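Students often ask why inverse folding is considered easier than folding. One informal answer: many sequences map to the same fold, so there is more than one right answer. In these notes we will look at a single instance of the problem. The structure comes first.
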C-alpha cells in the first residue's frame, strides 16, 4: 500500500480548505490502495491562542511549539511515497520545510485554493504580518512535482513556475450534503449567508439590499448569518450563529435562498466558491457576485443568479422571494450542477490520476 503524508496547518475537520479539498477523499483513497496520514501543527488549544488577539509572548510560545512539531514531521517523512502539502508547510515566509520534505525523495504535491501569493493577514495577527512572504507560493510551486490548483485563475498563476498543473475544484460530499426532504413554501423565507469572522465584511456588502428587502417584505422574510457568533445587526434582526461541524448541514438547510456577495479583486478571483457550492448542493437557490470561478458555475437564471449592482441583487432576490416554484426549480438545477461537476464522486478519479501519474 502506498503511503501519503498530508501536511497542513489544522487538525481534521477544522479548516474548510482541508475538509473540502482532501480530507473528504481519505476513505476513497484508502479503498484504492493509499494509506493517508495527516500531520498538522495547530491544535484546538493553540488555535484559540494563535488566531485570536492575545499577547505576543503567548503567540511566540505557540510558534516555537509549531516549529518543533514540524521538525518532527520532517524527521518521519522518509517512509512516505507522496507528500501532499496544502497551501504551505509553515506560516512564515521561508520554504525551509518544503525543501526538507523534498529531500525525503517522496513525490511532492502542492495544493492551493486561494490567491495566497497576495498578502493577507488576519486582524488578530497584524503585528506578525512581517513574518509572511506571499512570494513563497511561487517558490513552493516551482519545487513541487505536481501542482493542484482550485480553478483556472490559480492555474494561470502556477503555470509561470511549473508545467505540471492539474485543476481540481473544491468539491462537496453530496451524500452528506443532502437537501431537507420537506421544504415549506408557506413559512417565512430565510435569506442566509455562511462564512467566518474574516469574511463577514463580504456579507456586509449586501446590507443595503437586505434593508430594501426588509422594507418591502417586512416579516415575510428573515436573515441568517453563520460563522461569526458575535455578529449583530439591529435593523435586520440578525444575531450571528457559530459554525458547528455537527450541525452545519442542518443549519444551512434553514436557508431558502443563499447569498455570496464578493468584492471584485485579485484575492477573491482566486476563491473557489465553497459557500456557494454548499448552498447549491443543498438545493438552495443561490445568488452570487460574478467574480472568478462563480462565472463558471452559475448559468444565469437556470441554476442561480449572478448580480453586480444593488439593483440586480434586489431584483434577483425579489424574484426568488415571490416565486416558490422558481426557488424549487433553481435549487434542483443547482444540486444537479454540483453532482455533475463539483462533487467528490465527479472528481475522485482526478485525484487518482494525480497520485498514480
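Output (designed amino acids):
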Amino acid at each position: 500500500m502506498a503511503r501519503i503524508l498530508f501536511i497542513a496547518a489544522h487538525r481534521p475537520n477544522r479548516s474548510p480548505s482541508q475538509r473540502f479539498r482532501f480530507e473528504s477523499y481519505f476513505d476513497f483513497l484508502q479503498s484504492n490502495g493509499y494509506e493517508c496520514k495527516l500531520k498538522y501543527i495547530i491544535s484546538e488549544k493553540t488555535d484559540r491562542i494563535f488566531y485570536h488577539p492575545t499577547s505576543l509572548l503567548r503567540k511566540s510560545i505557540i510558534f516555537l511549539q509549531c516549529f518543533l512539531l514540524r521538525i518532527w514531521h520532517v524527521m518521519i517523512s522518509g517512509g512516505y511515497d507522496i507528500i501532499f502539502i496544502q497551501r504551505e508547510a509553515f506560516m512564515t515566509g521561508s520554504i525551509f520545510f518544503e525543501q526538507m520534505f523534498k529531500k525525503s525523495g517522496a513525490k511532492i504535491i502542492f495544493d492551493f485554493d486561494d490567491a495566497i501569493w497576495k498578502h493577507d493577514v488576519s486582524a488578530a495577527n497584524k503585528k506578525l504580518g512581517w513574518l509572511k512572504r506571499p512570494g513563497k507560493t511561487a517558490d513552493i510551486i516551482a519545487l513541487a512535482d505536481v501542482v493542484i490548483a482550485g480553478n483556472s485563475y490559480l492555474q494561470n498563476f502556477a503555470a509561470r513556475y511549473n508545467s505540471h498543473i492539474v485543476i481540481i475544484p473544491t468539491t462537496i460530499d453530496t451524500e452528506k450534503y443532502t437537501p431537507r426532504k420537506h421544504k415549506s413554501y408557506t413559512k417565512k423565507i430565510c435569506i442566509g449567508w455562511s462564512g467566518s469572522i474574516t469574511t463577514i465584511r463580504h456579507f456586509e456588502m449586501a446590507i443595503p439590499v437586505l434593508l430594501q428587502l426588509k422594507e418591502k417584505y417586512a416579516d415575510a422574510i428573515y436573515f441568517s448569518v453563520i460563522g461569526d457568533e458575535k455578529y449583530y445587526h439591529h435593523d435586520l434582526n440578525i444575531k450571528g450563529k457559530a459554525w458547528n461541524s455537527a450541525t452545519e448541514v442542518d443549519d444551512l438547510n434553514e436557508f431558502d435562498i443563499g447569498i455570496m456577495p464578493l468584492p471584485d479583486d485579485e484575492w477573491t478571483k482566486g476563491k473557489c466558491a465553497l459557500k456557494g457550492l454548499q448552498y447549491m448542493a443543498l438545493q438552495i437557490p443561490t445568488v452570487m457576485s460574478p467574480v472568478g470561478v462563480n462565472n463558471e458555475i452559475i448559468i444565469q437564471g437556470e441554476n442561480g443568479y449572478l448580480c453586480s449592482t444593488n439593483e440586480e441583487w434586489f431584483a434577483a432576490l425579489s424574484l426568488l422571494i415571490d416565486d416558490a416554484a422558481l426557488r424549487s426549480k433553481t435549487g434542483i438545477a443547482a444540486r444537479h450542477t454540483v453532482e455533475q461537476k463539483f462533487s467528490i464522486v465527479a472528481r475522485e478519479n482526478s485525484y487518482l490520476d494525480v497520485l498514480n501519474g
